[in-house]
């Protein structure tokens, strides 16, 4: 049974996940790493900058994105996984499809990151149980084309926790070892701006689930809205890295296990500063 990764910066700090989208349409870096060579080079750079995990995705989950055929997703991710695993990287496959998850693990990926938490593919939980690898189970209500229609909550923290509990129960019933599960509150997925901030302020309640927490807030819309100019035009995705790094540093005290980010260098720098300040206080 594979152990969960630990931070290469310091075991007391969150694990840094470097995002590697091998897609033409992801919201912030679509098209930049479509070729195997470009993707592998970026993966190596993220590792050099301090990423503990390289999270490879071949299907965009940006708001409004259409699904891609499974053969396209496989063709995008498998060669890149092979290249980076051969270099010794710890690789996660970002997919909602059990068949892609299985193929990725067979090629060397050691973590499955399922943004649907098992809701998109009825075979996912059984497949993960058989593969016996760490599994990121995210809060999710609908595919990208319709998820904004489901951003309605009476109590977003309570409902997200309850819905995560439901999926955790289904996952463990299917045979996934509880100690292999990582939860993700799904920042930006079927959440409006206020929902995201409320969840980020409520990590203590999500920690009550008793599982490691991965947060993926990097470059997302709620940060762009916060940084909007005086015409209320949101900051573009490329201008949200400093805000992401600040948020990453603040989440250290919230006890999150991992941070999924595009700008690994900025996040690592922010974590080092937060750690040093904490050491001085101690």
* Structure class: alpha/beta
Strand order of the largest sheet: 6-5-4-3-2-1-8-7
Number of helices: 10
What is the overall shape? globular
Provide a short characterization of the protein structure:
With 282 residues, this protein is α/β, with parallel strands linked by helices. 40% of the residues lie in helices and 12% in strands.
Write structural notes for this entry.
An 8-stranded parallel sheet has the order 6-5-4-3-2-1-8-7, covered by helices on one side. It has helices at 36-49, 70-86, 98-106, 124-131, 156-173, 193-200, 203-207, 221-226, 241-250, 264-281, and strands at residues 15-21, 53-57, 91-94, 111-114, 135-138, 181-184, 214-215, 258-261. It starts with 14 loop residues before the first strand and ends with a helix. The chain has a single domain, classed as Dihydropteroate synthase-like (TIM Barrel). It contains 10 helices and 8 strands. With 282 residues, the protein is of the alpha/beta class. β4 (111-114), α4 (124-131) and β5 (135-138) form a beta-alpha-beta unit.
């Amino acid at each position: 049974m594979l152990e969960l990764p630990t931070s290469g910066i310091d075991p007391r700090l969150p694990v840094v996940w470097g995002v590697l989208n091998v897609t033409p349409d992801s919201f912030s870096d679509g098209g930049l790493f479509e070729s195997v060579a470009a993707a592998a080079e970026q993966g190596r750079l993220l590792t050099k900058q301090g990423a503990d995990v390289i999270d490879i995705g071949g299907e965009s989950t940006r708001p409004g994105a259409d699904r891609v055929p499974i053969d396209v997703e496989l063709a995008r991710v498998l060669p890149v996984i092979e290249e980076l695993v051969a270099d010794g990287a710890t690789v996660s496959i970002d997919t909602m499809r059990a068949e892609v998850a299985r193929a990725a693990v067979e090629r060397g990926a050691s973590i499955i990151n399922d943004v649907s938490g098992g809701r998109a593919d009825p075979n996912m939980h059984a497949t993960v149980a058989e593969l016996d690898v760490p599994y990121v189970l995210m809060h999710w209500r609908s595919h990208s084309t319709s998820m904004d229609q489901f951003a309605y909550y009476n109590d977003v923290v309570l409902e997200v926790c309850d819905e995560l509990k439901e999926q955790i129960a289904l996952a463990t019933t299917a045979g996934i070892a509880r100690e292999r599960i990582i939860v993700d509150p799904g920042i930006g997925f079927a959440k409006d701006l206020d929902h995201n901030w409320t969840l980020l302020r409520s990590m203590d309640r999500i920690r009550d689930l008793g599982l490691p927490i991965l947060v993926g807030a990097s470059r997302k819309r709620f940060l762009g809205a916060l940084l909007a100019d005086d015409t209320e035009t949101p900051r573009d995705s490329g201008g949200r890295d400093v805000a992401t790094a600040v948020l990453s540093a603040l989440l250290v005290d919230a006890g999150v296990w991992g941070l999924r980010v595009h700008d690994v260098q900025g996040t690592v720098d922010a974590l080092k500063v937060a750690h040093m300040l904490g050491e001085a206080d101690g």
